[in-house]
Design a protein that fits this description.
The protein has 432 residues and is of the alpha/beta class. Helices cover 35% and strands 25% of the residues. The chain contains ten helices and 19 strands. A hairpin with a 6-residue loop joins strand 10 and strand 11. Helix 5 crosses helix 10 and helix 8 crosses helix 10. Bound molecules: zinc ion. The site of zinc ion has 7 residues, from loops.
Length: 432
């Protein structure tokens, strides 16, 4: 019989911690093989008991590889300790996904790790807090034949060996999909906030592009995901000083799905959403800032390709966007978009105007549009700003210069504030 006294208050977290540990163990048993219990126990012992496994395993790169052997793909991963993991596959493009709880990938070069014709690429990185992911892109369909994580009794070090063998495309498609195991589920993005009071501060959601397993463009050691986070923080500070209430979709190097970013804009009831990018184009000719909006019909070929690439990075990281639109009632969404679309376009125009009057380098066609998934919040005016192109040396140098970034941030702030004044005069005409 439970005692009804003060002690019960302490009982709850203990029970919860136990339940979480059990849940974690169940998830582990479902995906793991012999020998792991010891490693998982260690991880749990090192971590916070409330969150279960939070020990971070490091990789020994010299003993790790991904190579072809006798017609099969073999992964060897030497870890400093055993961690729970799971393996599954996804289609479009075909790839294998390994989730770990949790591996620090620093010091592991994908190019050195990968030595295979069956696999065409490998990416690793943090996925969500507490989660790490490895994605292997495949040249042909493969399925997990066996995996084994051996734990050294003395050192606690672990050696994961997994073997993947060819299967038919039909069999691959039939097996593909992320398993829905409780305990592995990801947290819901962005808690809902009440709408801002009339005349209250402008609520802005800034979206540093990419992050975590998806670094975005990389040129000459400059990583888009890192640079965008730096710029987003600078812009946030500037906007906050002018009285706005500013949020970021991510404040560290973690992966946030495009869908999650859109959901956050909606949940925050943001007044506007600004996605920040600096991509690289193969031709290397594109330069200067461009401001993109969602197209009414995706007509702009260059923007369409860029949009596809962003969506693809998200797909590679394991998120399926194909059904995301269906989750929101189509009709309501269209109604909201009819109203939001021109507001987004005016925001983009105000930004371009401010950039131009500041004398900042603009692209020859600074206003573009395409079917960007990240701009699909039906009720939040949204723009995607390509600050410049990492493939352009001039843009790269500009974006690495704090003084240049300060001018860029000031111009975007001015554009946003100018838009706000114009938008407020139209507010009485809107639905809601
Ligand atoms: Zn980007």
């Amino acid at each position: 019989m439970r005692q009804k006294h003060e002690g019960c208050r302490h009982e709850v977290p203990t029970r919860r911690a136990f339940a979480m540990a059990v849940k974690g163990l169940l998830a582990m048993m479902l995906v793991l093989v012999l020998g792991l219990a010891q490693g998982a126990g260690q991880a749990r012992a090192q971590g916070d008991p409330g969150t279960g496994f939070s020990g971070l395993a490091t990789v020994n790169p010299t003993r790790s590889q991904l190579k072809d052997r006798r017609g099969a793909l073999e992964l060897t991963l030497a870890l400093s300790q055993g961690v729970p993991y799971r393996v599954f596959s996804l289609t479009g493009p075909d790839r294998l996904v390994l989730d770990f709880r949790e591996v620090d990938w620093r010091g592991v070069d994908p190019k050195v790790l990968l030595n295979s014709d069956l696999a065409t690429g490998v990416a690793m990185g943090p996925y969500r807090p507490g989660w790490s992911r490895m994605v292997i892109e495949l040249a042909e369909p493969l399925a997990l034949q066996r995996s084994d994580m051996a734990i050294d009794r003395d050192s606690g070090a672990a050696l994961l060996e997994a073997r993947f063998t060819p299967i038919t495309p039909e069999a691959f498609a039939a097996r593909a999909g992320a398993p829905a195991l409780s305990g592995w589920d990801l947290p819901q993005p962005g808690q809902a906030l009440p709408p801002r009071a009339p005349g209250g501060p402008l609520r802005i959601l800034l979206d540093p592009g990419h992050g975590g397993i998806d670094p975005g463009a990389e040129r000459e050691g400059v990583v888009e995901a890192e640079l965008m986070l730096t710029f987003a923080r600078e812009l946030r500070d500037l906007l906050t000083r002018s009285g706005a209430e500013v949020y970021l979709t991510r404040n560290d190097d973690t992966f946030v799905s495009l869908e999650g970013r859109v959901a956050m804009a909606h949940g925050l009831r943001a007044d506007l959403f600004v996605s920040l990018h600096a991509d690289a184009l193969p031709s290397g000719r594109a330069l200067g800032t461009t401001v993109h909006t969602l197209s009414r019909e995706a007509s702009d070929e260059a923007s369409r390709l860029l949009a596809e690439r962003h969506d693809r990075a998200d797909l590679l990281a394991g998120i399926d966007l194909s059904e995301s639109d269906d989750e929101i009632a189509g009709v309501l969404m269209d109604m909201a978009r009819t109203e939001t679309q021109p507001r987004s376009e005016r925001l983009a125009e105000a930004m371009v105007l401010a950039l131009r009057s500041e004398g900042l380098p603009l692209n020859s066609r600074p206003r573009r549009s395409a079917g960007y998934s990240v701009l699909k919040a039906p009720d939040v005016p949204s723009v995607l700003v390509e600050l410049g192109f990492l493939s352009s040396r001039r843009d790269r140098e500009n974006l690495l210069d704090p003084a240049f970034r300060a001018r860029l941030a000031a111009a975007l702030r001015d554009g946003i504030l100018a838009w706000k004044i114009a938008d407020d005069t139209l507010a009485p005409l809107r639905l809601k």
